[in-house]
Design a protein that fits this description.
Elements (H helix, E strand, L loop, with lengths): L9 H12 L8 H37 L5 E4 H14 L2 H6 E4 L3 H15 L16
Parallel strand pairs: 1-2
């Protein structure tokens, strides 16, 4: 029986083939590079993303319990990688009140800054490195 993620794993082989179709003139070792990248992501990145997503969902659950009108939004590149984990870990209420939106960090920062200026509220989680968006 083939190992999941190995070249002989049929469903995985189809994914690798589809990825290779998107690379014009792939080098001879492109297939092996894709398999290696997948193994690294599964071993090192997936556990970190899953833990981080679980922590966020715990916070959202508390927010939802305190405010019936609150919503959770995963944005940008990070939201894309956290979406599969969140869909598996979410509770039913979170599934109804959480959305995944792909927006650039710059757009999110600009929207947050505009909201702060309009409402006079502050977002406490904003980093000092975000201040260049305030101009």
């Amino acid at each position: 029986m083939p190992r999941p993620g190995s070249l002989s794993d049929a469903p995985y082989s189809k994914l690798v083939a589809a990825a290779l179709e998107g690379i014009p003139n792939p080098p001879a070792d492109a297939e092996r590079a894709l398999v290696t990248a997948n193994r690294v992501a599964r071993r090192y990145l997936a556990p970190v993303i899953t833990k981080f997503t679980s922590d966020i969902l715990d916070d959202l659950h508390r927010d939802f319990a305190e405010n019936l009108h609150s919503r959770g939004v995963f944005v940008g590149r990070d939201g894309l990688s956290m979406r599969p984990a969140a869909l598996q870990l979410e509770r039913p209420l979170q599934r109804q009140r959480t959305k995944f939106v792909t927006l650039s960090r710059l757009l999110v920062a600009a929207a947050a800054t505009g909201f702060e200026r309009f409402t006079g509220l502050n977002f406490p989680y904003r980093r000092s490195s975000d201040t260049h968006y305030n101009g």
